[in-house]
Design brief:
heterodimer; A: 112 residues; mainly beta; seven-stranded mixed sheet; four-stranded antiparallel sheet; 0% helix; B: 113 residues; 11 strands
Chain lengths: 112, 113
């Protein structure tokens, strides 16, 4: 089982460029999440989708948009990248209630 | 606002030692608490989830306890091994989506052979 798959693994962008981070899960989970991890800040929730067709803002949504394409896929888009968005981005999935989160291996994004 | 603190930030122990990692949170109104392990350059792996109505969970050499009233959780690792070396993260879910986790900054554990 692949679990949660994120692409790409690494990306370098120039300020102002756009890109989409892809995430897919094969565990038939209803809920999916995007987190960012920064040194000294820990992991913070960007957006989540409790079920197919719904999305909600997390703690740090500014500068990002998301799409829950279907039950398997949840993408994160940076419309105009800024150096402050340099981070490691993690996608995760779970069942809605009292279930552990399953994380992908992350996308390391650098914005210059 | 919920805050999660993990002490110590780093810990180095000899192989075979039993150890305790600590996690504290400021708001006791949590839905559940999860412990994760993160290896360098990798994602997080769920170790244990304790529901708010539970006091502890066990998996192999790991035991996690939860005391909501005092806002504390501990992760006990028995007979530590070099393969246990990793960063251990604690996270609490405060409701809404249970994936809306508030994470501590982690404890980096090094187990020396």
């Amino acid at each position: 089982n692949a679990g949660v798959t994120q692409t790409p693994k690494f990306q370098v962008l120039k300020t102002g460029q756009s890109m989409t981070l892809q995430c897919a899960q094969d565990m038939n989970h209803n809920s999916m999440y995007w987190y960012r991890q920064d040194p000294g800040m820990g992991l913070r929730l960007i957006y989540y989708s409790a079920s197919e067709g719904t999305t909600d803002k997390g703690e740090v949504p500014n500068g990002y948009n998301v799409s829950r394409l279907n039950k398997r896929e949840f993408s994160l888009r940076l419309e105009s990248a800024a150096p402050s968005q340099t981070s490691v981005y993690f996608c995760a999935s779970s069942e809605p209630y009292n279930s552990p989160l399953h994380f992908g291996n992350g996308t390391r994004l650098t914005v210059t | 606002k919920q805050e999660v603190t993990q002490i110590p930030a780093a810990l180095s122990v000899p192989e075979g030692e039993n150890l305790v990692l600590n996690c504290s949170f400021t708001d006791s109104a949590i839905y559940n608490l999860q412990w994760f392990r993160q290896d360098p350059g990798k994602g997080l792996t769920s170790l244990l989830l304790i529901q708010s109505s539970q006091r502890e969970q066990t998996s192999g050499r790991l035991n996690a306890s939860l005391d909501k009233s005092s806002g504390r959780s501990t992760l006990y690792i028995a007979a530590s091994q070099p393969g246990d070396s990793a960063t251990y993260l604690c996270a609490v879910s405060g409701g809404g989506s249970q994936g809306n986790l508030i994470f501590g900054k982690g404890t980096k554990l090094s187990v020396k052979p």
